[in-house]
Design a protein that fits this description.
The protein is of the alpha/beta class. It has a single domain, classed as L-arginine/glycine Amidinotransferase, Chain A. Helix content is 18%, strand content 21%. The protein has eight helices and 19 strands. It has a three-stranded mixed sheet with strand order 4-1-19, covered by helices on one side. Strands 7-8-9 form a three-stranded mixed sheet, with helices on one face. A three-stranded mixed sheet has the order 10-11-12, covered by helices on one side. It is globular. About 7% of the residues have low confidence.
Length: 380
């Protein structure tokens, strides 16, 4: 049975994403907008400079990923899944994306599909309910269909299964204010996404919200909102869970996902990118302890050439996975983070994940916890 209310009570079942046939990115307005902060916001020696911005008009530029990196990613994901299984966790997997998958299409656009790797993004598990969230990237529009066999088994066992309204994803569907702002959360001003193209299918700003924007804490859901697409998504979510969960809205903790900024390791303890995040949280959580790891070092990342595109900040390794209130799976390359967590009394299980910056996710991103021991607990 599906039962998942948090990220730290004892874990017994999980979905681990698939990296099979992840060979490239479709770069269009939807991709540029989602990753604008990582691609263009960081002015460090580690960040690949952003390509010239351009309107999509429904067309995408294909950005190929080096074969070595795709093979090593697949190897690391399979090792990660095997590690979880060896620890007694029941591991479910999505359907692999076929190597010859046909393009997917919407009203006025077409994109190459993406494998279901970062499965935390387009699905939100709330207790006994699966919620397929509203995607913001065209190439990921049908990604949750690769999870349908797993979701069907949970539904057959009694789980609720809901879907947010699906956006049309024309250029006009997006609130561009965050990307065009002169003061974003990280890295200072970014190059704006420009020239959205009109379409006969335009309906205006639409619902878009990722599951990874939601921090689950028993009865309480902390949701990051950076612009109006997210706000509309949270409005829908609030109606969907009324009477079951309390929703707390935080404003621009990140451009999208909250789980590379803040994760709950156990009741009363957050792993945080910086201590200033406390001020963004609702008052009942201000008294939680904030564990802030040391700054990441360039040496903990592979060195890439200009032929590769970096999709995450150097802080991606905060994206850990807890098995319970004691044990945490952490990227083996992160000596400072490992030392910090061990110093706080956690048992760290190191697992290799080399190319997280090329594929936009860490251990928390490419998992969905489907059965944990916790429930509708008040952790405030």
């Amino acid at each position: 049975m599906l039962n998942s209310y948090d990220d730290f009570t004892p874990l017994s079942e999980i979905i681990v994403g698939s990296a099979e046939n992840y060979v490239g990115h479709d770069r269009d307005l939807t991709f540029e907008l989602f990753f604008h902060e990582a691609i263009g916001g960081y002015r460090s020696d580690w960040a690949y400079p952003r390509l010239a911005a351009h309107g999509s008009g429904g067309q995408a530029e294909t950005w190929k990923i080096g074969k070595r990196y795709t093979e090593e990613l697949h190897e690391d994901v399979e090792t990660f899944a095997g590690t979880l299984a060896s620890l007694g966790i029941t591991v479910h997997r999505p359907l692999p994306l076929p190597h010859d998958a046909l393009p997917i299409a919407g009203l006025g656009w077409k994109a190459a599909p993406t494998p279901a790797l970062n499965v935390r993004d387009n699905t939100l598990i709330l207790g006994d309910e699966i919620i397929e969230t509203a995607p913001a990237i065209r190439s990921r529009y049908l990604e949750t269909r690769l999870l349908t066999p797993v979701f069907r088994r949970y539904a057959d066992a009694g789980a609720r299964w809901s879907t947010m309204p699906r956006p049309t994803l024309t250029d006009a569907s997006f609130d561009l204010s965050y990307a065009q702002s002169a003061a974003t959360t990280l890295g200072g001003p970014t190059e704006p996404v420009t020239d959205p193209q009109p379409s006969p299918y335009d309906v205006g700003i639409e619902i878009m919200l990722d599951g990874a924007q939601v921090l689950r804490l028993g009865q309480d859901l902390i949701v990051n909102i950076a612009q109006d697409n997210h706000r509309l998504g949270v409005d829908w979510l609030q109606r969907q869970v009324a009477g079951r969960f309390r929703i707390h809205r935080v404003w621009r903790m990140a451009d999208n996902h909250i789980d590379s900024m803040l994760l709950a390791l156990k009741p009363g303890v957050f792993l945080a990118r910086h201590a200033g995040l406390r001020d963004l949280l609702p008052a009942p959580f201000h008294n939680w302890k904030f564990i802030v790891p040391p700054e990441p070092e360039p040496g903990q990342f592979p060195v890439y050439t200009d032929s590769e595109l970096l999709l995450t900040s150097p802080y991606i390794d905060i994206n850990v996975l807890s098995l319970d209130e004691q044990r945490v799976l952490v990227n083996a390359d992160c000596a400072g983070l490992i030392k910090t967590l061990e110093g706080e009394g956690f048992t760290v299980i190191p697992v290799r994940h080399r190319h997280r910056r090329l594929f936009g996710g860490g251990f928390h991103c490419f998992t969905l916890c489907t059965r944990r021991a916790g429930g509708l607990v008040d952790y405030r």
